[in-house]
Automatic annotation (TrEMBL):
This is MBL fold metallo-hydrolase. Belongs to the metallo-beta-lactamase superfamily. Gene3D superfamilies: Ribonuclease Z/Hydroxyacylglutathione hydrolase-like. Keywords: Hydrolase, Metal-binding, Zinc. Residues 57-271 form the Metallo-beta-lactamase domain.
């Protein structure tokens, strides 16, 4: 039985990439992967808990280069709730995880969002995600006041004016970011050795991050929600229930998996339970996951 991931780190030369836990979810696997079946999950039962649910890690990736401090995604925030027949969610430990690295929120110089689903924006402000705040509520303060906040323009426009439960609270998240958010695009360097990689499908402006360091011939790709669990390495056709464009998400995932069949490429799956860092092994009969920890 696998548990939500704890703190873990990979070093590439002088650059470190550290998973900082914020919380976790426990999901009904066939509900969130509609193409899957109980029989299919029986083949991957080692990833399920005693209740038959799939544990899902939630947190941020801290990328520290020689002179930069970057956070990729901002977790759930202070929440504890359940969606019947789908999933339970609990979060709130990100700032404590950051403090264990010797950092305060003021030390973060860049926040980059892979996308704006609620479990990736939770610590944007000091207001917990949830139902839209009452009209006229004052904007809350940004949790990381000195940081640039970066997102794809297509992602920002997709959620502007909406109040879907899976997206950002427009008052608690997009409101405070207005005037502060900066748009980034495919191939753009946001820090030394940290480059944006467009990976649309899960959402229109979904992006991943590619991390390199001149002192190491390897690279690491922070996936975002291209994949939600290690099982999708082998079952790449199992799309996620909240994929905005399922066919595009599947094509993006398959193309990236083929590229990941390279021993010098590590991947970081922020929702992977157990071990968030690993590699994709080339298929013999089918692809397999190999933990890097």
């Amino acid at each position: 039985m696998v548990l939500p991931a704890s703190r873990a780190q990979v070093r590439l030369g002088a650059t470190t990439v550290t998973f900082l836990p914020d919380g976790h979810a426990r999901v009904v696997p066939t509900a969130v992967f509609p193409a899957s079946t109980p029989t299919g999950w029986a083949t991957h039962s080692e990833f399920l808990d005693a209740d038959g649910r799939l544990p899902v890690s939630i947190g941020s990736f801290l990328v520290r280069t020689r002179d930069r401090v970057v956070l990729v995604d901002l977790g759930l925030g202070q929440v504890d709730f359940e969606v019947p027949d789908l999933a339970s969610f609990r979060g709130g430990t990100l700032l404590r995880s950051l403090a264990k690295e010797g950092l305060a929120p003021e030390d973060v110089d860049t926040v980059v969002y892979t996308h704006l689903h609620h479990d990736h924006v939770g610590w944007t402000t000091d207001v917990a995600p949830g139902p839209t705040l009452p009209e006229g509520s004052a904007p809350s303060a940004l949790t990381f006041p000195n940081a640039r906040h970066l997102v794809a323009e297509a992602e920002w426009k997709h959620w502007t004016g909406t109040a879907e439960v899976i997206g950002p609270d427009p008052v608690a998240v997009q409101g405070p970011l207005s005037g502060r958010v900066e748009f980034v695009e495919d191939g753009q360097d946001i820090a030394p050795g940290v480059r944006v990689r467009a990976t649309p499908g899960h959402t229109p402006g979904h992006q991943s991050l590619v991390v390199n360091d001149p002192g190491d011939d390897r690279r690491l790709i922070i996936l975002g929600d291209v994949m939600h669990c290690q099982v999708q390495v082998a079952e790449s056709e199992w799309g996620f229930v909240f994929d905005d464009a399922p066919a595009e998400a599947a094509a993006t995932r398959e193309a990236l998996l083929t590229e990941l069949e390279d021993e010098r490429t590590l991947l970081a799956g922020g929702h992977f339970a157990g071990h968030v860092f690993g590699r994709v092994l080339p298929p013999v009969t089918r692809r397999a996951w190999s933990s890097a920890e």
